[in-house]
Amino acid sequence: MTSRPPRESLAQILGGRRGAIDASIPPAAFVLGWLIAGQSIAWGAGVAIGVAVVLGGYRVARGDKARAVVVSLAAVIAAALIALHTGRAEDFFLIQLLSNVASALLWAASIVIRWPLLGVVVGLVIGQKTRWRRDPELLRAYSRASWVWVFLQYTLRVVVYGSLWWSGQVVALGIARTVLSWPLVAVTVAVSGWVLYHTLPPEHPGLRVVEENGDPSDSEPDGLPRT
């Protein structure tokens, strides 16, 4: 009897540290420019956009996809324009706050309709697409693990960002934006991975079970809604 290969960790599959770190640099630059220039939103916005352009150019030169760089730069420009329009430095972080509200609702809804987004993301990354839904044990595990993302990542960010934004704590928002980027993502991946693998029975081969079994069937598992 051949032994099964060890299960892959969720951190190995998802990665993403570089993108999370990159996303926290322009907000930090905004706060720094805002402080140095005597709380000038215009200077903070200019510094943030300048840093985003330099960072984007570096990433393109390193071979990153230009579309992802453009989207990141557009988000920084939009945040800067909002702060300039309202005259409130804390509004530079408003898009980040609203995006986390939307993410929390979207992830929660995906679990309710039995299409947990963690499964969708991992399935795309490892090339399984949506075939993982044929395995009821994987579906249940992805659903439980997705709740970790709803509460530990997105809801926590909403509470922290929302309270700091409401009270106008610009410097604290910049710090929170950094702390709640890659460090929080790393914790979320670790905890959701633990939940996922402890939900699966010990004999379950892991995330690639559909491919390893070679099941060509397109039928859904018993008890699952057909879509």
Characterization of the model:
This is DUF3159 domain-containing protein. InterPro entries: UCP010219. It comes from Amycolatopsis umgeniensis. This protein is mostly helical and 227 residues long. The protein contains 10 helices and no strands. It has helices spanning 10-14, 17-36, 41-61, 66-86, 94-112, 117-125, 136-166, 170-179, 182-199, 209-213. The longest helix has 31 residues, at 136-166. Mean pLDDT is 86; it is low at 210-227.
Task: Give the topology, please.
Layout: H1 10-14, H2 17-36, H3 41-61, H4 66-86, H5 94-112, H6 117-125, H7 136-166, H8 170-179, H9 182-199, H10 209-213
Which structural traits does this protein have?
mainly alpha, 10 helices, disordered C terminus, 227 residues
Short description:
With 227 residues, the chain is mainly alpha-helical. The protein has helices at 10-14, 17-36, 41-61, 66-86, 94-112, 117-125, 136-166, 170-179, 182-199, 209-213.
Radius of gyration: 21 Å
How many E-type strands?
0
Subunit organisation of the chains: single chain
Overall pLDDT metric: 86
**Total domain units:** 1
What global shape is seen? elongated
Given helix and strand content, the structural type is: mainly alpha
Tally of individual helices: 10
* Biggest beta sheet attributes: none
